[in-house]
Amino acid sequence: MRNLGQSKLVLACLFTMLMLHLIIWIEDSFDNVGVNYAASLIRDDEEYRFAQALTVLNARKNTKGRFAFQYAGGARDHEKQPFVELYPTPELTFSILAANRWTHEIDDYEPSYLLESTANLLLAIEEDLSLYGARFSSINVTLCPTTDQVDQFSELAIISKLLPVEAIKKRQKPMDSFTLSCRTLLDVGSCIRQCVTSSVTNSYMVLLEDDLIAEDQLLQRMWDILAQFATVSPSVEKEIGAVVLYLRGVDFQFSLSDVTSMWELSILSFGFTMLIISFILPRWYRRFCFPSDFILVFLTFILSALIVCFIGRPRWTNWLLFLSRKQSFAYAFRPLDDSGASGLLIPSAVARSLGEYLWGLNCSELDSRAPFGLKSAVISNFLRTQNLEIYTIWPTLFRHRGLYSIYKNDIHDPHTMN
Fold it and tell me: For this UniProt entry, which segments traverse the membrane (predicted)?
């Protein structure tokens, strides 16, 4: 009778968790309430960042100064904060794919993503310089306009006051008449071919879309990632094809296609099962010896798995980071999700091959009906054919703040924005 009562208790909890999952799914699928309010909050944040960017521009204009993008590494001020040395000293090239979104009449609002993200990135570089000195061999910032009418790109005209002329990488041929799918890939190929000039060890390209905003301590976390990869074996290091620097929280979940996440789910569920059984069963360690209790244990495991999924993989990972006192984890990842290619760290040698491959694609073979996610799929397939691994970093180094989609010519659902 006691086992029957305990089984009913577990079944009641199991039913409750299923109902919670169902309610959340219905809410996510059909909740359009507050869309305008959520979008207004995103626009308020954008206007605040826009004001910050203009403040940065005015400060540099008044002092007639420029950001220090390129600097010689080597000498280091002893008063700077200590850090783990890397040999050879890494060099970074940030390349931002700059879309002129003002030409897309979604509504009367004019986004200024490029100005905000570029100023944010440059401030992150200055912050790292002030804290650690010129520890990188070099840091370059380049912009790749994805339009033929560069002279009509008003944001680019403003930012060019901070950048040297050679930092603006125009298209290598006119492409406005091509389909969006074709332009998307050829723009990436053109950008990589012009921006990546080195293939030495520890040279990396950071390929970004213009609606990504750098998180705090961007360069510090990037240095830690490079230090983490430097500790692996040379054979593993050669297999690194790309590192995903931005991933939506909804894409970082427990998935049957992700073996690592399934191991995490199993371990956490087993731990919860042991915890629950130790409370509801006297002498719980003996219960595993009786077949009559297997159903109760199985139901408890299912309940535990639902609890783990309800809390979510991002929260579990963040708690583990806090306990381990680490800044981030690197995961060997499955093929890129739709948003996975919006922020990538790529070794320069791999980037050069990728750029040539993308530039040589035949546009007639591309699916012009599905431009969103096409870049991720093509890059993922290329790296897989080269036997190269894709890693993802959590927490991500960038956050997405682009409400206006260049692929859909519409706005994103603001509830999905992080």
Answer: 9-26, 262-282, 294-313
Q: Are 393 and 243 in contact (CB under 8 A)?
A: yes
Averaged over successive runs of 10 residues, the pLDDT of the chain (418 residues) comes to 56 64 58 62 76 74 51 53 81 88 58 82 86 86 87 80 81 84 89 83 89 89 87 70 86 80 87 76 54 71 82 85 80 72 92 92 69 78 90 88 66 62
DSSP character for 277?
H
d(CA 379, CA 181): 13
Q: Tell me the two tokens of residue 239.
A: 């297999």
Structure confidence at residue 193 (pLDDT): 93
Alpha helix (H) ranges present in 312-417?
313-324, 348-359, 374-385
Instruction: Say yes or no: 192 and 138 in one domain.
Output: yes
Which pLDDT does position 122 carry in this prediction? Answer: 84
Closest CA to 163 of 288, 68, 45, 275: 68
Q: pTM score > 0.90 for this model?
A: no
Strands (DSSP E) contained in 279-394 are 329-332, 343-347, 389-394
Which residues fall within 8 angstroms of residue 105, CB to CB, at 6 or more apart?
none
DSSP assigned state of 82? P
CATH of the domain at 75: 3.90.550.10
- The 3-state DSSP class for residue 411 equals strand
Segments of 79-164 assigned E as strands: 91-98, 138-145
pLDDT at 358: 92
Structural domain including 315 reads 2-25+254-321
HSE-CB of 319 using CA atoms within 13 angstroms: 8
Question: What's the gap between Cα 369 and its chain centre?
Answer: 25
Type of residue numbered 150: V
Distance CA 93, CA 85 (A): 20
How many domains does the chain contain in total? 2
* 240 & 383 share domain: yes
> How many angstroms separate the CA atoms of 63 and 47, rounded?
25
- Assess if residue 335 is contained within a domain: no
Tell me: do 148 and 243 sit in the same domain: yes
For residue 4, what pLDDT is reported? 55
Residues 199, 105 within the same domain: yes
Q: Which two tokens stand for residue 267?
A: 């371990």
